[in-house]
Amino acid sequence: MKRFLILTYILIAALTTHAQLTSSPLDQEIRAVWLTTIGGIDWPRTYATSPANIERQKQELVRMLDRLKEIRINTVLLQTRIRGTVIYPSALEPWDYCMTGKPGQYPGYDPLRFAIDECHKRGMELHAWVVTLPLGKWNGNGCQNMRKRYPKLVKKIGQDGFLDPENSQTGDVVANLCEEIVRKYNVDGIHLDYIRYPDGWRIRVGRSTGREYITNIVRKINRAVKSVRKDIKLSCSPVGKYEDLSRYSSRGWNAYVGVCQDAQGWLRSGLMDQLYPMMYFKGNQFYPFALNWSENRYGKDVAAGLGIYFLDPHEGNWKIDEVKRQLAVCRQYGLGQCFFRAKFLLDNVQGIYDYLRIWNNQDLLSERLGGLPPVPAVEDHGFSPVKSYEVRPNPALPYLKNNGTHMQLPPKGKTLDADMIIIRTLMGTAVATLPYRGSTADISRIPSGSYEVRSLNQKGITHRLGFLEIKR
Fold first, then answer.
1. Cα 336 from chain centroid?
2. pTM value?
3. What is the DSSP letter of 37?
4. Which of 132-141, 172-181, 215-224, 414-423 has the lowest mean pLDDT?
5. N or C, which end of the chain has less CB nearby within 10 Å?
6. Tally of CB atoms within 10 A around 382
7. How many CB atoms lie within 10 A of CB 403?
8. Which of 176, 184, 171 shows the shortest CA–CA distance to 212?
């Protein structure tokens, strides 16, 4: 066993070096991390106050990206606008203090350009993470700058300032900044954070009106960045639960009603290309809501934000098995993964980094070792997964009858408008898309094994029909 584990780690080290040359199902999956710059809590840890410190600051990031590449992270969400302040030379907003330790001071190089170049060298995407409405402390550098420029646009809540979500000028201000980034830099995406009503704001309008205010901001940003580059990926990090479900309550904290984020509607209408919902929850506050995001993707990418910071005993009381189960469910549902945040991942809290070295290289190992190392997955019993070493279907759903060449299709009834079915492995990889018509489907070209069967309509909405066991 020890010899096998040693061989496994040797192969991982070799394979990750050449992963970009190998095509695999995991190449299509978003594996992302939020890399925070506020206060330098992820990066930088060194202030750029001299040529030597500038180089040290750069090398900190280089080492982080090298290690992220080893576990096949392919998307870095770099905090670019912090609190009305930025980490690049902007004509609109001042430098954040995180680079030099002094507000408004140039660090001697362009950190955003450097980060983009280093990510692209490693085949990783860099998305500029833009904190939209919060401006930080009322007398802070970013808030003061905004108050001078737009005195009627900034509202005070407690000790902090915020852009007014109900003022039409807010969308213009944020859109102009996002457009500036896209015009100046070869970023792969713009990632919007806190695109919602602020905490503590008394929403005095109807929720539908509130959603329209927030959507108008998104609409202006979309128009601004897409006018520069059609291929730019626009995303956001909504509240982790979209709305109450029929069987599960969001406990009063959801995107659609609670803070007026119509994130799924933004996907449906094309205003967003990706979503990174902040799903920092456990148990039945995670699994059914993950399925809801999966079933309402409208053909777009959704990566579940995983709260790995709770693995730190100073932050929470999670055990790593909880994150392992969440990873397995995300992959089973076709969701990507996004970790909050980089420090906890790279500090290998409870062994999370070591686990991902195996988890995100399963397909490469399988090709060369003839099988996967045993990694915990899920046992799905009404959204209460427990540790297991295989993915077992929900017993409440049927196994669809088949004779090895044809599968019996369930009747559509009067409500199901799907015209296709998707057959996927239990880890979420699609192996076939077939017409949903008649009473049977041809499965003669699908290898023996266990599969999930889902319907698919023209809007991209899917529903699980059951499971398929092919034995020949």
1. 6
2. 0.77
3. -
4. 414-423
5. N
6. 12
7. 12
8. 171
